[in-house]
């Protein structure tokens, strides 16, 4: 039905992605996406619905104690979920509704699988720690999705305030690095004749190794979110079930602690960036209103 090549599919990958996706999922997802693109008429939304169905299958397997099967199904569900965006970008068939469906599908899969594992094991053992772990996984996942947009709003407000203080005559280091991701922040002071404002200057000063680490990851198409929601889900719903019942709670607790620490580090970076801007109450109130 199509004459797409593997290179065409590889070109649709995100410029940077989670390390779990880059190394553990994309090698399979890209080849499956090539088969779908060339031999079926399946749409991105159809792939999202298929991913949701497989995810519910994983939740059912978890609920009945088939942990290894549930882990395999969850992995396949996420793999299919990674295919829909590639097909959308390849064929130009993405829709705004598809963004909503993809988001809701992810949340349904996580909630269903968490409760499938937690309350399934609780029903079999009577141990409440499984149920509490399930609730903790869901709460952390929802917190991550609430925290992200709020931090984005703070970053945008900080940038607007900085532009007001600089009379708009500046370019942000974040934009320079986005355009040239393999560039190290150190030593970049001027861009297109304008002053480069590094809102992460304090962070870079406190953690000088971070920028080199970022460039190291960029060269491998990996983003710096080393413990994002994707790795959290992989640990809880793939790694822990494959290790067995005894690993469910400790692995979930450990992955949850790492995810929470990462979210706190994001808050810390945004707080440091906000402190870089000289205070001006009238301007701050006008911009933040």
What does this protein look like?
- The protein is 74% helix and 3% strand.
- With 289 residues, the protein is mostly helical.
- The chain has a single domain, classed as Four Helix Bundle (Hemerythrin (Met), subunit A) (Up-down Bundle).
- The protein has a three-stranded mixed sheet.
For the termini, the CA-CA separation is: 53 Å
Instruction: Please state the oligomeric state of the protein chains shown.
Output: single chain
Could you estimate the helical fraction of the residues in percent? Answer: over 70%
Q: What's the CATH first level?
A: Mainly Alpha
What count of domains describes the coordinates? Answer: 1
Main sheet overview: 3 strands, mixed
Class by SSE composition: mainly alpha
SSE order, one letter for each helix or strand: HHHHHHEHEEHHHHH
Low-confidence stretches: 280-289
| Continuous helix count | 12
Cα-based radius of gyration, to the nearest Å: 22 Å
Strand content: under 5%
Mean pLDDT, all residues? 90
| CATH topology assignment | Four Helix Bundle (Hemerythrin (Met), subunit A)
- Find the count of extended strands (DSSP E, 2+ residues): 3
Shape: globular
Keywords: Membrane, Transferase, Transmembrane, Transmembrane helix
Protein name: CDP-alcohol phosphatidyltransferase family protein
Pfam families: CDP-OH_P_transf
Organism: Microbispora corallina
